[in-house]
Amino acid sequence: MKQEPKTKNVNNFLKFSGMGIQMALTIAIFAGIGYWLDGKMETKQPYWTAAMSLIGVFGGIFSVIRQLPKE
Question: Where are the domains of the chain?
């Protein structure tokens, strides 16, 4: 019976570290799309990179909040 709390802690660790990795990948993908758009449109300032990075941040936060347990 002492194995249950240890397993629960490991499962929580994996779940929350997965959320962090998912958020980082979301931001990186959106920033990459913005970088590509800046190159395609030949903008002098990285407006697309900044805008898409912010969208990635908000999307990542939204995704993490949805996955949090309702306790």
Answer: 25-70
